[in-house]
# Entry
Amino acid sequence: MASKIFPNQEGLDNFLKSKSLHKISEGSEAKCYLSYVDGLAYKRISKGRTGDFITKDQIDLPSFAFPQDLFIVDEKVYGYRSEYIDPNLFLIDAYNPLSIVKFKKLNLQNLKRALEIFAKDTDRLSKEHIQIYDMAFNLAFTGTRLVAFDTLDYFRTEKDVTEMNRSSIDYAIKTLFNLWLQIDPFTSLNQLPLEEYLKEIEGIQRRLIKSDENY
# Structure
């Protein structure tokens, strides 16, 4: 496992200070930063975590921003660094759902192509018996690539997680459009297979753009 071991919390904080960090977000248990030194994202966790965490050196997939290094103090994880994902690319912000304007500009064909690659990478995770966790609110789209981030809660299991992981993709993408378009998640539209669902979404997008043109 890739890790950096520090003698104490002060040692870890001094290491972080050397990376010229700029805070980009803060939650109840962690703070996230962008380093101006190496361009990576750094996450500082307030309460130490233990577990068999998945890191980039174990499985390297373009669709998943796994930690490159774990920061260890007293055999507990207090942070990590990983690929930086621009917050403007996040598909869902739980506190600020994306506007209909962004939906109209979204290149759905590019998203569908990226989704095919993402699905293949997800199947590779499943073959390694790695289960996805809480992906819907931790997914970004660069315009050509879907990237899942904040993956520390992904875990290994002996059971077959193929269908569960595929369901996570289905839920994440539908949650995105349900928020954008204020679609009731219990409607028949959400019961469609994802490919058919996206065809319906394309139709909604075309109608919205045409309505703007006629306005």
About this structure: Strands lie at 3-6, 21-26, 30-35, 41-49, 69-73, 76-82, 130-131, 139-141, 146-148, 155-156. Helices lie at 9-17, 100-105, 108-127, 162-181, 194-214. Residues 3-82 form one domain. The longest strand covers residues 41-49.
